[in-house]
Amino acid sequence: MKSIIPVFALVVCLSVGGSAWAEGITVNNASFETPGEECYYQGDDAAWFDLTQWHAIGTAWYVAIYPPGWYPEYHFYDDPTPDGDFVGCSSYGYPGSLWQQTGHAFSTGESYTLSVYDGCRTDLGFPTSKIRLYAADPGATDLSTATLLKEVTATDPGAGKFALQTLTFGPGDANYDSPPEGAVGKDFIIELSATPDPYWEADWDAVSFSFDLNYILGDMDGASPHISCCFDGFCIVRWPYRLVYAELQAS
After folding, report:
1. Contact status, residue 100 vs residue 47, Cβ threshold 8 Å
2. Which of 162, 168, 182, 249 is most buried (most C-beta within 10 Å)?
3. Is residue 182 part of a domain?
4. For residue 106, what is the domain's CATH number?
5. Lowest-pLDDT choice from 148-152, 181-185, 219-223
């Protein structure tokens, strides 16, 4: 569905700031606060999913949810935990990951941002940690039939610190501009993955996933437009001294 909305350039939505509109996509147990106690993957993915709302891949006991701040005598972090008490982790030389299907379908009318805080403990090194985005049929129970759309490798936050890691997926990405066959319309899967060396660990917290509507602005002699704000798909566009329109595309 497309909407073409004429607006006058002098109308600016200052009350909500100058950033473009974005809509959150639900991530279940995004900060790993459920079940509210330290717990370890035991090799039974169905039981782990019922407990945590995340699927797990890895070796029993080495994918976990735990509260770093509950052990002040070990001083795992100088930084506070980004959100709540708990983090998800993969550790001690065994590759592992946490993943979930979002229920939001891949559309070429939208651009996407997936973010997570990656942490490096003071007593352990930082592994190869990746954020991945897939598309799969609804109800996927493993990643064997999922299509990998994009991955990014996290940067080392530094000992005792958390750092925000971000994956963006939209125009300019190969699998967005030329999607793999059948990927459009399938549900996104997000994955947090780590390949630790011995005594290395990746901790994850505060996962977020969102989308923006792509827009096409009418040709106004090369002037630079800026979307000031959007409400339910209707956008106010700032463009000095000109009448403009914004065409929102959403499939």
Report:
1. no
2. 162
3. yes
4. 2.60.120.260
5. 219-223
Bridge partners of 150?
Answer: 133
Domain that holds residue 157: 26-213
Q: What does the H/E/C string look like for the chain? A: CEEEEEEECCCCCHHHCCCCCCEEECCCCCCCCCCCCCEECCCCHHHHHHHHCCEEECCCCCEEEECHHHCHHHCCCCCCCCCCCCEEEEECCCCEEEEEEEEEECCCCEEEEEEEEEEECCCCECCEEEEEEEEECCCCCCCCCCEEEEEEECCCCCCCEEEEEEEEECCCCHHHHCCCCCCCCCEEEEEEEEECCCCEEEEEEEEEEEEEEEEEECCCCCCCCEEEEEECCEEEEECCCCEEEEEEECC
Is the residue at 33 inside a domain?
yes
Q: What is the mean pLDDT of residues 109-133?
A: 97
The pLDDT tens digits of the residues spanning 69-82 come to 999 999 999 999 99
Q: How far from the centroid of its chain's Cα atoms is residue 219's Cα?
A: 33
pLDDT tens, residue by residue, 141-181:
999 999 999 999 999 999 999 999 999 999 999 999 999 99
Please check whether residue 207 lies inside any domain of the structure: yes
**How many domains does one find in the chain?**
1
**Spatial separation of the C-alpha atoms in residues 38 and 29, rounded to whole Å:** 14
